[in-house]
Specification:
Blueprint lengths: L8 H13 L5 H19 L18 H12 L4 H20 L29 H10 L10 H14 L3 H6 L5 E2 L6 E5 L5 E5 L2 H18 L21 H15 L12 H13 L4 H8 L4 H20 L2 H16 L4
Antiparallel strand pairs: 1-2, 2-3
Helix pairs in contact: 1-2, 2-3, 2-4, 5-6, 5-9, 6-8, 6-10, 10-12, 11-12
């Protein structure tokens, strides 16, 4: 009978990824898990002392010592966040192997990982930019080949008024909007298959109703069943990741706000704008956590702390404060006055 420690790594990686698939991660996340596992494993296999083809690498070769050396080489060209993500993936992989009784323990606590501060929020820049974006997209643009302002407005409004992630928007069904008029909510399945209910205000409700009516007009009522995808392209086919990203970018261009979208944020800038405005309007960290589906309260607290810093920076930039500073400097220079 084969010793479990002689099991080959690659089949165990596939078993782990299959187990993760039941949590319904996005295809992007699954691809990242595989990339992190195989990238570090290849470095273990390439060890000059005991080189092996990756396909022949046994699980017993993955010791704390070999993993420390592999992670040191893996980390050299990468950012701290990428290293931290890979470490977390390997930690989850070994937890899976322990639970499956393939290995006796998890070596990852012996492998150092970088501390990664929460990434700062990247909302749209400019106090009135969200309103300008919505207004710019709500108007039909004759330069478009196939204008559909009702659909485009619904996408932006769901991100700006409900804080949905890209994957959450794609997962929405027409039946995700539940409740009676005035008490409507949207049911969202977020990261880790965590569900949450987000209140839908009458204005957002009306935007969605108008969009669904325009969809019926285009494709017929048969395309708007409760289990059909909520967001579709101009052919009535469910939107996919690339199509949704392109749509949002085209909305930025049409509204003339591309210079106010933080680099790399794309659709996520809308979610960050939703969260930032919640914080600015006095929402607590637990409220932000529930509405955005964060796994950690620290992530939600980050919006409040950044907002407080921005408020202080705005006050510091106030011309009256600067005038007061000059006045005080003058008094100090002359020894003050009675």
């Amino acid at each position: 009978m084969q010793d479990k420690e002689d099991f080959l790594l690659l089949p165990l990686v596939e078993q782990f990824l299959t187990s993760r698939a039941t949590r319904k991660p996005s295809p992007h996340s699954l691809a990242a898990y595989r990339r992190d596992l195989l990238g570090v494993a290849q470095l273990v296999a390439d060890d000059p002392a005991t080189p092996l083809p990756l396909a022949e690498l046994p699980i017993r070769a993955l010791t704390s010592r070999s993993l420390r050396a592999a992670f040191a080489r893996f980390a050299a060209p990468r950012a701290a966040a990428s290293i931290h993500r890979a470490w977390s993936t390997w930690n989850g992989f070994f937890d899976f192997l322990v639970a499956e009784a393939v290995v006796g323990g998890n070596p990852m606590p012996a492998v150092a990982k970088p501390r990664v501060p929460p990434a700062p929020p990247k909302p749209l820049r400019g106090e009135r930019t969200p309103e300008q974006l919505l207004a710019g997209v709500a108007r039909p643009d004759q330069r478009q080949r196939h204008p559909w302002p009702e659909r485009d407005l619904a996408v932006l409004a769901l991100a700006l008024c409900a804080g949905l992630r890209l994957s959450e928007l794609l997962a929405l069904r027409t039946g995700s909007l539940v409740g009676r008029e005035g008490e409507r909510r949207v049911e969202v399945t977020g990261k880790g298959s965590r569900s949450r209910m987000i209140p839908v205000e009458p204005e957002l409700d009306q935007v969605i109703v108008d969009y669904l009516e325009s969809r019926r007009h285009r494709f017929g009522s048969r395309t708007v069943g409760p289990d059909s995808a909520l967001l579709v392209d101009r052919h009535g086919v469910p939107l996919r990741r690339g199509g949704l990203q392109y749509l949002v970018e085209s909305c930025y261009r049409r509204a003339g706000i591309t210079d106010r979208v933080p680099p790399g944020a794309r659709l996520h800038a809308l979610r960050h704008t939703f969260a930032t405005r919640l914080a600015e309007d006095g929402a607590s960290a637990p409220e932000i956590m529930r509405l955005l589906g964060h796994a950690s309260l620290a992530t939600s607290q980050n919006y409040i702390e950044v907002t407080a810093e921005q408020e202080r920076a705005a006050v510091r930039a106030n011309r009256t404060n600067r005038s007061l500073g000059r006045l005080l400097s003058g008094q100090l220079a002359t020894g003050g006055s009675d």
